[in-house]
Structures are given as C-alpha cells and as structure tokens.
Amino acid sequence: MSKHCMGSEAQLKYHDILKLLKPLITAPVLPPLSFSKKAPSVRAFAAKMASSEAKARVIDSHLHVWASPQEAVEKYPYFPGQEPTLPGHLDFLLESMEEAGVDGALIVQPINHKFDHSLVTSVLKKYPTKFVGCCLANPTEDGSGVKELELLVLKDGYRAVRFNPYLWPSGQKMTSNIGKALFSKAGELGVPVGFMCTKGLNIHISEIEELCTEFPSTVVLLDHLGFCKPPTNDEENLAFSELLKLSRFPQVHVKFSALFRVSRTQFPYQDLFPLLSQVVSSFGAKRVMWGSDFPYVVPECGYKGAKEAVSLIANQVPLSSSELEWIMGRTVMQLFEGQWLP
C-alpha cells in the first residue's frame, strides 16, 4: 500500500473517531450542582421531621414523686412532720402517665423529703430521657445553699430550682442577700427558678419584680397561675392584673397547672377559661405550660382528667391547635432543650 493510501486511511479513521466523539464534545455543559440556602439539606429535613414529631409530645411541667412507705423505711426517709397522706411513688406515676398519654415531666422536689434530693435523683438517673428535675432552694443563712444548688445542677443533673418563700428564715424575703445569691447563681447555671406563692401572688409580687429586674438572665416559672383564682373582688382583680403585668419581663413563664387549686368549680374547671385566655394574650402560648400537680390531682379529677381539662378549657378560649401544642409540651421542651428527643 502506498504512503498516500496509508495517509488517507489514517485520515478516514480520524474522521470516524471524531464523528463518534462529536455528541460528547458538543453536549451542553451542565452547571455544577447548587446547594442553595433555599434547597432543604438532609439535616434540615431531618430537623423538620423531628420537629413535627416533637410538637405533638405531651410534657407535664409540674408534678411530684416521693417514696413509698416501704422505701421510706428502707432508703428514702420522709422529713419529720411531712409524711405524705397520698401515694406518690414512682410506679404509680409511671402507670398514670402511660394511661394519660403523657411522654415526660418536670419533677419538682417534694416537701415530703425537703432538702434530701436522693429519691428524686434516683428517678432522674433511672429515666434520664423521661424526667427533668427541679430541686428545692435551701436559703440557709450561712450561704451553703448556693453551693448545694451548684452541686445539684452540675453533679446530679437538675435543670430547674424551686423558691419556696415560706422556707426563708423568719422575717426575711426572697430578695435577701441569700435569695439574690441563689437567684443569680440559677441564672449563671442556666436553670429556671419556679416561684411557689401559695399564700397569694400579691404577697410576693414585689420580690419577684425586683429579682427579675436585677437579674434579667434568670428564667422564671410561676407555679399554678401564681395561685390566682378567678377574681371575685378588688384584691383578687389586682393580683391577677399583677400576674399579667409580669409579661413585661421576657424571662417570665406561667404554669397553667394544678387547676383544681385555682378553680372555684369542679372538673373540668370551666371558670378558668377567661384566665387562660388573658394569660395567653399577655404572655403568648410559648410562655405558658400545662402541669398536673400529681399526685395531689389524683383524688380531684385523676391524672388523665388533669390533661383532658386543658383541652376542654382551650376549646372555650378558643386556642389554635398550635397554641395548645405549645401549652401541652412545646413550651417546656423549648425551656429544657435537648431533654425530650423524638
């Protein structure tokens, strides 16, 4: 074969190869994949799914648990003079929660064990994803209660603390040096302070306002609507008005709890719907949370009834389904972030 023929043959093969490659060479170049902020990432999608699951969870923001009589003898003694008259042991609580469809709870240290937190601590360790602990502030005059609080939070995992003003030394207020040290330490540790104003919010309102003003980073929980009943006179109107005015402090949250204590009627406590309506209007549903006050509620309307009453009252307000979800669990889940995972 001549050199000319060989060149033509090589040229032909070149053109054939070029023809085969042309579609690939001339194909439009696709832009690189773009992960814009608008496109949901896998993580964002998972978070959204988790959120949709979490929003329906029911979390009780206020209940108690204490030793059974046998446990009290063997391991967890009652504080002298504070022996309970109702059963409030762990198995009873778990059965009640399961029957009512309640997923988790904030356990408030009961007066029955006073400053001995060993029983509640054992429950928190046994069910770390079901319960959160609220310890009891010890306003001892030597200031050792501040260190006790720090140990309960950092060592035993408590995530809230209760101020019972009737445990302060005689003649002292919660705004005493010890009270302020405890309140300040709670803010530093990131744990909310719950106020128990059994004898009336009007007695303690100035103390709460002073503490909130001086320590705005400390989150506040007002137990049981601040013990405000549906007003029937000027004094009660004033107390409820003061409760609503506390909404000016962004750190203040309200527990719509122990309804049997604040209602003037029997289950389903329908006289409370105007109060809930005004509290939600002032604070917003994201700062309101339901609580049962187990086991005290059991002989009143039952634990399941404590949960059902809120829905019945909410229908009277009326509240949106989203607002009711916040009250029934999302508010407390937001406060104790990461505790009750889906």
Automatic annotation (TrEMBL):
Belongs to the metallo-dependent hydrolases superfamily. InterPro entries: ACMSD (IPR032465), Amidohydro-rel (IPR006680), Metal_Hydrolase (IPR032466). Pfam families: Amidohydro_2. One of its GO terms (molecular function) is hydrolase activity. Keywords: Decarboxylase, Hydrolase, Lyase. Gene3D superfamilies: Metal-dependent hydrolases (3.20.20.140). Residues 59-331 form the Amidohydrolase-related domain. It comes from Tripterygium wilfordii. This is 4-sulfomuconolactone hydrolase.
